[in-house]
Amino acid sequence: MKLNIGCGYNRLEGWLNADNSPDSAADSLMEAYDLPLESASVEEIKALQLIEHLGFFKAKYFLSECWRVLRPGGALTIETPDIEKTFSVFLAGDAAAREAALGWVYGPETAGMGHAYCFPKELLAELLAEAGFETRAVTEFMFQPQRPALRFEAVKKEGERAALNSALRRRLLDKGLAAFGREEESAGLELAVRRLAGGAGDSAAELEQALVSAAAALEYFTLSGENEQRPSPEAAACARLVERDLQGRMAAEFLARYSEGKSAAAAAAAALSLGRELLKAALAGAASPHGPPPAEDAPAVFTREAAAAWAFRRSRRRQG
């Protein structure tokens, strides 16, 4: 099978043409970052003028899903605006060129057609490598007048790190844990996922990511121990932390300190200190130390930025 994802009206004969919009020529409706396809079932993927519509965090999952569904050595072709050359067109052009360049950066105002994130060449190359692809060729071309574009041609490479990255992100998608709703939560979870799937093999450092998302850490340690006869101590600890709502308790601790007039940094430090106590107790199989009850509306991801944004929104709602 060959997959033409984000096809719009660009149907390719002999391919599975897929898009997330019913107003398209797709054979099948699906999200590019959450592919309902079997692993290693696809020979080739084309994603033409798609990735800029996803945003940075969904693009990470899109690439991991491409790696998962492609067969070993399968080809991936991505075309996207060349954002750096588009800036040059805008700065050097007349009014018509500047208008065309702006439309190329932001995309049409038609529903679903706007551009969420344009990827510089170096960044896209880095993300492809991180996801387990080898870039074979990069072509610069003019998609339309005043609208320069990039074409990346890459192939799937086998590797434990890429396989772990793909499997972990797939689990987060399946469990509804992939955070796409708020920037600060997406950024926090993304950092934790990168550290978990980084292949360092330092279980203590990996377990520390439970402070960001106990649920994500549980999926990682469960995945890592699938061939073991019993759950690892780390997986068991993360399960206890999920049951005890670690992120909710840390958010409550943050809010208590923040409400006392502490800075966001100081409040986050207090919350992390509590989190480490709870983590230590969970790893030892002990009862949870005394602490505040979980905040009911807490974000599922804890970082200083996510907690501060949550506390700000909470205070504004109460004021209103």
Our estimate of the beta-strand percent is 15-25%
Q: Name the helix and strand elements from N-terminus to C-terminus, one letter apiece.
A: EEEEHEHHHEEHHHHHHHH
Task: Output the radius of gyration.
Answer: 22 Å
Q: What count of structural domains? A: 2
* Biggest β-sheet description: 7 strands, mixed
Alpha-beta content class: alpha/beta
> In which order are the strands of the major sheet placed?
3-2-1-4-5-7-6
Helix content: 40-55%
Short description:
The protein is of the alpha/beta class and about 325 residues long. It is built from twelve helices and seven strands.
What does this protein look like?
The model has no long low-confidence stretch (mean pLDDT 94). The N and C termini lie far apart (54 Å). The protein has 320 residues and is of the alpha/beta class. It folds into two domains: 2-158, Vaccinia Virus protein VP39 (Rossmann fold, 3-Layer(aba) Sandwich); 161-319, no CATH class. Helix content is 48%, strand content 16%. The protein is built from twelve helices and seven strands. It has a seven-stranded mixed beta sheet. Helix 1 packs across helix 5 (160-174) and helix 9 (233-243) packs across helix 11 (264-284).
Search tags:
alpha/beta; 2 domains; single chain; 12 helices; Rossmann fold; 16% strand
Task: Please give the structural blueprint.
Blueprint: E1 2-5, E2 16-19, E3 28-29, E4 42-48, H1 56-69, E5 70-81, H2 83-92, H3 95-106, H4 121-131, E6 133-144, E7 147-156, H5 160-174, H6 183-196, H7 203-207, H8 214-224, H9 233-243, H10 246-259, H11 264-284, H12 304-319
Parallel strand pairs: 1-2, 1-4, 2-3, 4-5
Antiparallel strand pairs: 5-7, 6-7
